[in-house]
Amino acid sequence: MVRLITHNLLACHAKGCTTNNFPLRLQDAAVELRDAEFNAEFVRGFLPRLEWKALVGAARELGDKSLPEEMPEMVDEEFLQKLHHVLLEIHIDEGAMVCPNCGHVYPIANGIPNMLLAEHEIA
C-alpha cells in the first residue's frame, strides 16, 4: 500500500530526470484511513529520515492539515501521534504520482505504485 512514509522516499528515476524530481505530486488519489498500532519509538526514529516539507505538502494534498509547516523543536507524544497517523494510517489506494520535472506518471492501482519504466525511459 502506498502510505506517506513510502511516498516520502520516492523520486522520479526516468532517464535524464535528475533535478526537481522530488517530491512526486499526488494526483486523483483515492484515500482510505486504516488504523495502525502506534509505536512512538519507531516514529521518533524515522523523524531524521523525513523530508518534512514534502511530507506536509503531500498530507495537505490529501486533505490532512494536522502537521505544522515546520518540524517542531520539541517532539511530544501528541506530535508523534499526529505524525504516526500521517505516515502510517493514510493509505492511497488509487491515483498517480507525477514527477514535477518531467511529468512522468507513476500509476497507483490497488494500493501498489507502478515505478517501472519503459526501456526507453531507463537512465
TrEMBL record:
GO term, biological process aspect, one: rRNA (guanine-N7)-methylation
Pfam families for this protein: Trm112p (PF03966)
Listed InterPro entries: Trm112, Trm112-like
Record GO terms (molecular function): protein heterodimerization activity
Family: Belongs to the TRM112 family.
PANTHER family for the chain: MULTIFUNCTIONAL METHYLTRANSFERASE SUBUNIT TRM112-LIKE PROTEIN (PTHR12773:SF0), UPF0315 PROTEIN-RELATED (PTHR12773)
Protein name as annotated: Trm112p-domain-containing protein
Native species: Phanerochaete sordida
Phylogenetic classification of the source organism: Eukaryota, Fungi, Dikarya, Basidiomycota, Agaricomycotina
